[in-house]
Amino acid sequence: MTAIASELERFDRLSSTWWNPSGPMRPLHVMNELRLAHLLDRIALHFGRDNTTLAGLRVLDVGCGGGLLSEPLAQRGAEVVGIDASRGNVFAAKRHAQSQGVTLDYRLGEPCDVLQPAELFDVVLALEVVEHVADVADFISTAARHVAPGGLLLASTIDRTWKSFVFAIIGAEYVLRLLPRGTHQWQRFVRPGELAAAATGAGLRRIDLRGMRYLPIWHRASWSRDTRVNYMATFVREAN
């Protein structure tokens, strides 16, 4: 198992709150708007197409949670496969998609179990998930095998620094209570260099790295040069 059992139990308990923009997932809703805009622009730039439609593209969302990003990508025409090891998450994602009349393929389980070896995607997403797995290098290697030649892998996570301990754990979970206590374990945070090394070992090349700033009082998110808390990295598999 790539996923950690205690993490799955916690996400199962929180699964009913995914689509409540004022609940425990509020920070993700705020960050999701920023990440979606960046993803659409990155896809448009990389594939040389308009950023208003994703028709003709296959997208894999690994650790899709309740579908906060899978669903808007499907609404824009992408063929989306969302996978998650939490039964509660997948149930919440399916239920919300059905209520909105959105068609996409949600699968319960680990990538190595629910994906065929030959399944390839133009874009693979691993957003806010690598800090919840037991072996980051193995997880990235598995996800990377499904990136088509010329395709992209985008990963977002939290850096393992003193600043992330202060802001992402003490501040967010204990002081401001933006997230339930125990949402994150500092020792599982991933340095940008560690993520890049895992991706390079899997045959990918990093083409973008950017930090994300979240202002909890105002519930706003913006891009930043500072990667010491939240950050997003984009990797490419060179075309054959």
Counted by DSSP, the helix tally is 8
Global shape: globular
* H/E element order: HHEHEHEHEHEHHEEE
| CATH homologous superfamily (4th level) name | Vaccinia Virus protein VP39
Strand order of the largest sheet: 3-2-1-4-5-8-6-7
Name of the top-level CATH class: Alpha Beta
Beta-strand portion reads: 15-25%
Low-confidence stretches: none
Q: What is the overall pLDDT average?
A: 90
Distance between the termini: 32 Å
The CATH architecture designation is 3-Layer(aba) Sandwich
Structural class: alpha/beta
Which quaternary structure do these chains form?
single chain
- The domain count comes to 1
Radius of gyration: 17 Å
CATH topology: Rossmann fold
What helical percentage do the residues reach? 25-40%
Describe this structure in words.
With 240 residues, this protein is an alpha/beta fold. The chain has a single domain, classed as Rossmann fold. 37% of the residues lie in helices and 24% in strands. It contains eight helices and eight strands; from the N terminus they run H-H-E-H-E-H-E-H-E-H-E-H-H-E-E-E. An eight-stranded mixed beta sheet has the order 3-2-1-4-5-8-6-7.
